[in-house]
Amino acid sequence: MNSLTVTVAEKHSTFSVVFKEIIQNESMNKHPLNLALRFLLEIAALAAFAVWGWKAASGWWGILLAIGLPVFFATVWGVFAVKNDPGRSGKTVIPTNGVVRLILEILFFGLAALALFDLGFNIAGLAISVLVPIHYVSSYDRVIWMLK
């Protein structure tokens, strides 16, 4: 076999192992791909709030909103948490009921998608609208835990 065939076979084998792990894993909640997706969704949402704040007002108000909205949402995201949440560190500043936390997360991502649609970034808004449910379906065990 030439080196190209071996390289392709190695890559195929790596992908097979990753996808096999995804399919066989009972919980995707802590899977690196799902954690990366969640992280990227959180960053995209905060960026959406910053851009929306910047565009919503002009001058100093725009700057204030561009900084203030992401800080506000990041603070709410970090402070209101469920103790021992399997999808987070488990630490919390203000202990929150799982249902309340789930509602906060859905509002966070929903408002980010609305901000993107309002800005005219329809593809980005659609991407968040599609990827967030995929993330939560993949994290079904965490969602069930939060609803108990």
TrEMBL record:
Keywords in alphabetical order: Membrane, Transmembrane, Transmembrane helix
Keyword Transmembrane: yes
Transmembrane segments: 35-54, 60-82, 94-113, 119-138
UniProt cross-references to InterPro entries, sorted A to Z: DUF2568 (IPR021214)
This protein's name: DUF2568 domain-containing protein
Organism of this sequence: Tangfeifania diversioriginum
Lineage, opening ranks: Bacteria, Pseudomonadati, Bacteroidota, Bacteroidia, Marinilabiliales
